[in-house]
Amino acid sequence: MDHAVTLLAGSFVHPSAIIAPGASIADDVVIGPWCSVGPDVVLEAGVRLFSHVVVDGHTVIGEGAVIYPFCTVGLAPQDLKYKGEPTRTVIGPRTQIREHCTIHRGTVTGSGVTRVGADCLLMAVVHVAHDCTVGNGVIIANNVVMGGHVTIGDNAVIGGASALHQFVRIGRGAMVGGASGVEADVVPFATVVGNRAYLSGLNLVGLKRRGVDRAGLHMLRAAFRTLFVGAGAEVFSDRLARVRATAAEPYVIEMLQFIDAPSKRGLIRHTARRVNDEAE
Prior knowledge:
By secondary structure, this protein is α/β, with parallel strands linked by helices. It has a domain at 6-149: UDP N-Acetylglucosamine Acyltransferase, domain 1 (3 Solenoid), CATH 2.160.10.10. The chain contains four helices and 29 strands. The strands form four sheets. The chain has an eleven-stranded mixed sheet, with helices on one face. It has a nine-stranded parallel sheet with strand order 1-4-7-10-13-16-19-22-25, with no helix packed on it. The chain has a six-stranded parallel sheet with strand order 3-6-9-12-15-18, with no helix packed on it. It starts with 5 loop residues before the first strand and ends in a 20-residue tail after the last helix.
């Protein structure tokens, strides 16, 4: 370990770890055996790298984050247009990144930064591609892969072995069922499943966990059914206008704002024959 490394008191670095000159290691950081930390990396207070972790590029690992063995964070993206530009990776506080995850830095043709929020759990073998933005409190189960420029809203849950197409947006509080292929946007608070994924209802479990009351659930359910269920020949713009004319519940307004926002992939609109969105 070179003397030019900024290493504050209370940190521990295993003798086998390689810390490049210029890296900034805050208080109480623990770096286990056979880890590699690049020269432009910042590890904030209380970060723990278990072992065999590679952190490189212009990368910030937030306070209290934990990275398990055989993960790579901040390496060059899998994009043939990338020419070594100093793009960034940011991992939020207290996020847990389990074994064999790969998180690549951004690109100059995208936002320039790949970002994972605070209090997230990325289970084993998750791939977060360049320019993705993952919100706070997101849970991503094992073997999920995402293309570049994916956006996942706060408190979303992504089921194991799912694949998210590049530029897809997953709304806040949405849930993607396991082994789903998602090629279009998922509105907030909805559940999608299947290959290719279809809407299967509202994420009632997630909504109840966040304290949405019975009245709010019923208003959100009514809006969801108007937009997506049993519409017959009525065009989507007319259904959208009907919901917009009466929207008062904040979760319904958030869903409408998501629909109105720019999108490169469009919305998932087709539903299962039987929609599981009954509000108890």
